[in-house]
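INTERNAL AUDIT FORM
Audit reference: QA-55
Scope: verify that the stored structure record matches its stored sequence.
Auditor: D.O.
Record contents follow.
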Amino acid sequence: MSAISPVLAEVVRSGFVEGRHRGALVVLDADGAVELALGEVTAPVFPRSSNKPMQAAGVLKAGLDLSGERLALAAASHSGESFHRDLVQKMLDEHGLRPESLQCPPDLPLDARERETYLAAGGARDRVVMNCSGKHTAMLAACTLRDWPLESYLDPDHPLQELIHRVVEDAAGERVAAVGTDGCGAPLAAISLTGLARAYRAFVRAEPGSAERRVADAMRAHPEYVAGTRRHDTWLMREVPGALSKMGAEAVQAVALPDGRALAFKVEDGAARALGPVLARALERMGVDAPVLERIGRAPLLGGGREVGEVRAAF
């Protein structure tokens, strides 16, 4: 029987702890050694969209020449804001592709405020709007360039997906433990939280001009295309110089700092409300001192429309 995971966050309402979020977290020092391990950090997990930098590096290694906002969008879980949708459509046009070629499911904007605006304007579920559409567009463009099959680009044994699989293993420094299907339909490689932190460390420490460094540099230069105007990843990469940050569904987060320090964690029950408080506390324990951490770490609870509690880190 596996050990019970430690509590990473508490849900406090009116001074009463009404719930707890358990999980696992690892911090690597500048040399890549484990500095802090809470819970089981060597068992495989699905990093979900925290794997996207590796997937973006894979399309570059396939020969696709992306840079700037386009490369950031290839590694994105974008909010579905108008500038995200416009650039996805532009990238499709540039590579002679149609939205119908995307095999991610039709969806609404990920950002709640943007979703309301989009629906009020008559918008409907659309593949371009889906938060992974930049990644899928880049994958299709790489396949077009290499004359690889388009209709099967999401099959695990497709040449592009096999290449991405190798990129994940090389960056993580370990074998992929399992392959599943992500929410967007793409193959999903399972690695440990320690491997995920190592991968982010590898990207920020990679040689300039390498695929890994190009992805890290594009994400850090254009964080609003990686996430959105109201998202933790954007705020962190804007306000902590050199930080590389990417969340994943089911409450996964990975961050690397430019000196090689890195962290990765997963909240066991997948509660996204715990992400910000856990992330802010982990960065504080790494010695990061920036006003943005207070903003990231705030997760208020409401009662009758007013703040009566919070989700707070518990380590």
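Auditor finding: record pair retrieved intact. The first helix runs from residue 52 to 61.
Action required: none
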